[in-house]
Model the fold of this input.
Amino acid sequence: MINNDLKKIYQKSKEDFYQELSEWLIKKSKKIIITANPETFMISEKDQDLKKILSDSNNSLVPDGIAIVKACQKLGINIKERITGIEICEYLLNLANENSYSLYLFGAKEEVIEKLVKKIQTEYPNIKLLGYQNGYIKNKDEMMEKIVKKNPDICLVALGIPEQEKTIARHIKEAKKGIYIGVGGSFDVLSGVKKRAPKLFIKLNLEWLYRIIKEPKRLKRFWNNNVKFLLKIKKLK
Ligand code: UDP
Done:
């Protein structure tokens, strides 16, 4: 049931989550972080592999989308605030720079990842960048196997839902440590290729609207996931 998985979503503040992240890194823990939005749950209804990933108590789910926060509130699950993939990326890059953590980047188009690598090299010079790979290769599992062997402290994977979560989950057992997180379109924004919504849109919880205006082809995806998700929640209530 969707509401059992929703109960697993992190309920405390962004600051509390960041504190946990930094402790996991200090302790050299192994973690998969899933930035949950309606699409995550809608896909998991039909995709047993993703469902298993969401239900695994070792994995950490955070409320990426506003629809998740609102749906949980409707069901009496008290989520404090959104914790977005893009902000987690920014936090992790700063933390990695301060502590000279190692990093691997996997996903997005070649021009995007190259721009992001340049940015990291200039703005976060203490990060040990172990390598990077665009997300348009045939054998993503072979790549993830290689990444895990390099033993990064942090691995950001931008392949889209559910491929990023499933690719990580298939190989994490071989990892000795590391924060592995699926970050969707975050590389496109972090690299500067795409712009994040203006602050006002974010403040008014309308980031989803900005993304549709900018990329109207997202509308179908929005309907099939966010709208249907909210209707499902209404029925549950
Ligand atoms: N992507 C990729 N390989 C693929 C398909 C997608 O690397 O085979 C990347 C794509 O370039 C983009 C990200 O995965 O950077 C998915 O972004 P999207 O905006 O769809 O994710 P959202 O943030 O909406 O979940």
Observations:
- Residues 107-109, 135-136, 158-161, 184-185, 187-188 surround uridine-5'-diphosphate (CB under 6 Å).
